[in-house]
Amino acid sequence: MPSADRQSFDRDILLLSCAAFASAMALRLCDPILPALARDFGTSVGNAAIVVTAASVAYGICQLIFGPLGDRFGKFRVIAWATLASTAGAIASALSPSLEVLTLARSVNGATTAALIPLAMAWIGDVVAFEHRQATLAKFMSGQVIGLVGGQAIAGFCADHFGWRWAFALLGAIYLVVGSLLLASPRRRDGHANAAASTVARMRLVLGDSHARFILATVFCEALAVFGAIAFIPAHLHQRFGISLFHAGAITAAIGLGGLGYTLFARRWVRLMGPVRLAGAGSAMVSAALALVASAISWQWDLLACLAIGLGFYQLHNTLQTLATQMTPAARGTAVSLFASSFFLGQAVGVTVGADLLDRIGAQWLFGLAALLVPLIGSILARNLYLHARIRNSSPK
After folding, report:
1. What torsion do the CA atoms of 36, 304, 380, 146 make, to the nearest 10 degrees?
2. pLDDT given for residue 389 in this prediction
3. How far apart are the C-alpha atoms of 315 and 269, rounded to whole Å?
């Protein structure tokens, strides 16, 4: 690639990574401030978790809209406009006078930010050859991971020192700046925009493939098990050890640091371990870490556990992400958006079930149950990948 083209491409990836930062920050922003929301709106932490569920549900449902839109009108263009539109939901969240209004505002924010990460992954799948895609996705993912880290830490800090509303105001400003830069990008290159095929045809193409259905079901279960537990780690730390919301959010943000550690060395990890062992080892690491969260006698152990959760989860999830970009190349935007839809609907179901279990049986049992489910999911995925590899290797050349 010529130097000028390389610089333009790197700038595009940086802007998309910044959009992913904002999107990840938006979706995890409420985790550390649930106790503050419960206090301000006179309800329980479990009931306040509706703001997490609302954003995830809207995010998941709107994948069914944005994936086909990206395939039809161009993925980069849709990302740019959706980033700007996300400003409205973030500002509305900052100004919400009640939990009901905040829930509605979070739904709007979840709906518009739904376009950013999945369509960016699909765009990368369009313009980057498969043999180089893992490294490019890892570079792009760094913004998403930093958003996870920064979102939780910033939200906890704002809740402790200025009020939780300022976290949403800052998020709105980020959306506005990044969206404007994306829209002004001199080279909004869109691979494979296709106005001919209908939305229904694209959906049928993806869902008609048995392997694609397996990947979608697996990522749903992964999100249900993992995020149904980790969404409540900050509240658990705050209540069990009496630490501040900022402190609890910063500890939980170590999940993102663990994930960032994976993205920095993803090329070596994939080459060394391969997808089968990455999936198995990652799920086992998450399981052990969740068990540690459930049994830890001090918050220092929870810090170590959160680092391990991030490192293990991104081994498992990045394997699924890479598979998703290759599920249905002819309708890649739709395919990756269905993948994201399954992922965030899984989060929504997980947080809803987790909130109920939290109020009924307590956080420690919730974390213990998740620790049992995650390695089961990872082992099923690893076995499926192993069998597919054997079939490919045994096929006539």
Report:
1. 60
2. 62
3. 9
Query: And the tokens for 305?
Result: 């556990």
What mean pLDDT comes out for the span 326-335? 77
Query: pLDDT of 260-294, one tens digit each?
Result: 888 777 667 767 777 777 788 888 999 999 998 88
Q: How many domains does the chain have?
A: 1
Q: What percent of the chain has pLDDT over 90?
A: 22
The domain spanning residue 177 has which CATH number?
Answer: 1.20.1250.20
pLDDT band at residue 251, thresholds of 50, 70 and 90?
confident
pLDDT band at 186 (very low <50, low <70, confident <90, very high): low
Find the domain containing 167 and state its range: 3-187+195-394
Contacts of 85-89 with CB under 8 Å at 24 or more apart are: 85/112, 85/179, 86/22, 86/23, 86/26, 86/112, 86/113, 86/116, 86/175, 86/179, 87/172, 87/175, 87/176, 87/179, 88/112, 89/113
Angle between helices 332-361 and 50-73 (to 10 degrees): 180
Q: Which of 25, 49, 52 is nearest to 38 (CA)?
A: 49
Most confident of 234-238, 308-312, 340-344: 308-312
The closest alpha carbon to 188, from 110, 74, 308, belongs to 74
User: Within 13 Å and on the Cβ side, how many CA atoms surround 42?
Assistant: 2
pLDDT at 391 over 70: no
Residues in the chain: 397
What does the alpha-carbon distance between residue 28 and residue 147 come to, in Å, rounded to a whole number? 8
Buried b (16+ CB within 10 A) or exposed e, 227-255: bbbbbbbbbbbbebbebbbbbbbbbbbbb
